[in-house]
Specification:
The structure is a homotetramer of 142-residue chains. With 142 residues, chain A is α+β, with helices and mostly antiparallel strands. Chain A has a single domain, classed as Hotdog Thioesterase (Thiol Ester Dehydrase, Chain A, Roll). The first copy, chain A, is built from 3 helices and 9 strands. In chain A, the strands form 3 sheets. A 5-stranded antiparallel β-sheet of chain A has the order 2-4-5-6-3, covered by helices on one side. The N and C termini of chain A lie close together (5 Å). The interface between A and D is medium-sized, with 20 and 20 residues.
Chain lengths: 142, 142, 142, 142
Amino acid sequence: MANLINRRQFTIEWGHCDPAGIVFNARFFEFFDWGTWTLFELALGIKPPELGKAFGIVGIPLVDAGARFLAPAKFGDTVEIASQVSEFRRSSFDVAHRIFVGGAVAVEGSETRVWAARDPADPAKIRSQPIPPEVTARFVVA
Amino acid sequence: MANLINRRQFTIEWGHCDPAGIVFNARFFEFFDWGTWTLFELALGIKPPELGKAFGIVGIPLVDAGARFLAPAKFGDTVEIASQVSEFRRSSFDVAHRIFVGGAVAVEGSETRVWAARDPADPAKIRSQPIPPEVTARFVVA
Amino acid sequence: MANLINRRQFTIEWGHCDPAGIVFNARFFEFFDWGTWTLFELALGIKPPELGKAFGIVGIPLVDAGARFLAPAKFGDTVEIASQVSEFRRSSFDVAHRIFVGGAVAVEGSETRVWAARDPADPAKIRSQPIPPEVTARFVVA
Amino acid sequence: MANLINRRQFTIEWGHCDPAGIVFNARFFEFFDWGTWTLFELALGIKPPELGKAFGIVGIPLVDAGARFLAPAKFGDTVEIASQVSEFRRSSFDVAHRIFVGGAVAVEGSETRVWAARDPADPAKIRSQPIPPEVTARFVVA
């Protein structure tokens, strides 16, 4: 058994890069977000904008994010992001991302997200909620 | 009588700039958006997120935007954006923006926006609506 | 004979969208930039970061950009951008972009760019330069 | 003795926010970058784009970044970012950022950056370099 990994390729664009000619750091956190949504689509077979309705949640808000920048990515590079859930807890989970440039890991990222629903006692508030086992089961491959 | 002009100063940041070392073009359209919201706040005395509720609209969605790039803006430049409504029509209006670098116009921008409310016949739809005269009156200075 | 058209599909991401749930206008100008670079790669067979060296230019800086927003693009939409040079002049050219959502044009964009090289008399300056006929010829399809 | 803290206020814009109506996570990493550059300007009295030339470095590239999202920031919020160097090492340093909304910490961020210069043996390469003591001294307040 192993964790399901989503792989997605894309190109580094001119507008992703800063005056040093490399991807501006904040862009990588956009890419991590892309990776998480497509991982969930791959695992659950549900289009990202339908995820909330399908499970009665408001979404999977981010509570923690981090990145280690090991090598630069440059304009025109074809990169691959590999994303997997590294741990499911009761109502939160971690996603690990690796961005490859030319086959080598250029950036390692991590996100902690919450399975979040409206508070029945106060719908203006959001609170974490247990992640259904039928969800977590879909992130494991035999 | 003249049109009310909103002036706002800000600094060009590292992350606004591209590998040529100058502001990436898409950023200027962000700056125009900043200019329009603060112009409306100046004219109407209403915080931008309260604008919809105050006038029974969903917002002022953009239907057209354009820019002429006359001179570059660079990392560390202090710039000023001057924004004014150049024309009010029945249910739409044009905003003209000028971005100054070192006292000279570096970018001229224009936006066409619609005064938009939910369609009473179908709340999933949005349609333009007459702009109240008490709104347009606030954009003129004696 | 017709103009070469580059078509590129991509997905609208969460981070592209604003509180109205639709793509924030400035993002479309990023997409136009993506379209232009890939059109040039298709036409000339040269990777975007190599374009400058291949032709002795510093790039193809933007001097004018515009967009008409006809219909919204939303999180999860698969969109296609179709880009073509609509006119070549001596040292500048126009690129026309159409972004399709569900088969219908949602956004029409235009860019005017310059074929720009360092000024031999003052390398700190950039000036427009005639576009080589072997370049323009590649943007026509029989 | 204490660490010099740079405080900077700004407004959350429409384009900073995502379909949940709150600041999209990647934007906070832009804000951290704003905070670091202005902290260095405050400490050293040198405009950010002049920093490299002043100290014979290529810049202060990021090797690690992280954020904890404690509370949302919304369109129209006035926020303050407080930034300080939390540790100087031989050739790298950590910057701690706190973003306040309504007086409470909404986001805590950290960056690790390197004092980086061209490698004399191979100018195409960049390597870390000892941070001059006259630099570190400026980040302490009596």
